Amino acid sequence: MNRQLEHGTVELVLGNIVDQQVDAIVNAANTGLLGGGGVDGALHRAAGPELLESCRALPVDREGRRCPTGAVRTTPAGALDARYVIHAVGPFFNESSAQKCERQLRDVHQAALAAAVEHGCESVAFPAISTGAYRFPIDRAASIAVDVACTHCQSPSCIKLIRFVLYQESQLDVFRTALRSWSPAV
Ligand code: AR6
Prior knowledge:
By secondary structure, this protein is of the alpha/beta class. A seven-stranded mixed β-sheet has the order 1-2-7-6-3-5-4, with helices on both faces. Strand 4 and strand 5 (84-89) form a beta hairpin. The chain has helices spanning 38-47, 49-56, 98-118, 138-152, 169-181; strands spanning 2-4, 9-14, 24-29, 72-76, 84-89, 123-126, 161-166. Helix 3 (98-118) runs parallel beside helix 4 and helix 4 (138-152) crosses helix 5. The chain is built from five helices and seven strands, in the order E-E-E-H-H-E-E-H-E-H-E-H. The chain has one domain: Leucine Aminopeptidase, subunit E, domain 1 (3-Layer(aba) Sandwich).
């Protein structure tokens, strides 16, 4: 399914994030940025050692993080069929701080799109950030991700194609509902 907005398109596909041919692939990373399971593991395996080397070269802060939660770092994409990997650190979902988690998930999507614009990208593929190991409820994550993407595509300087790559049919269904029902804030 896709939805054409004023200046760009938001697309939903069932598939594997590592197979995407786009300018930038977004990784669902952690603050250390040295790989992990899920999307992160799959991307590092497919990209080869160059991706890990690029991540290792990024500066580490006093808390040992290469990227704080809610932010992104951009590297070359190694052997992937993309120019960049945008490493995005989503929040670990916790119901007792749900509002903060929701804000951080929104921030990380906005930061990834801003990084893609900054690097001159016209197409970006996102996984469903935070909905695996980080346990963000899929319906809440989908409505935030879709809202940020659709809002972005209302702006003339936007990314022309934002693709969400869902791993399971059930996740695709949830994103489909969110994309169909999205309307601009008044
Ligand atoms: N392509 C597309 N989607 C995928 C793929 C794939 N190859 N593999 C999994 N998914 P997760 P998170 C889906 O856990 O929740 C890592 O260890 C998956 O079904 O990859 O942000 C990092 O190093 C789920 O819906 O990311 C971090 O420590 C979604 O992608 C931590 O997990 C995200 O699942 C980040 O957790």
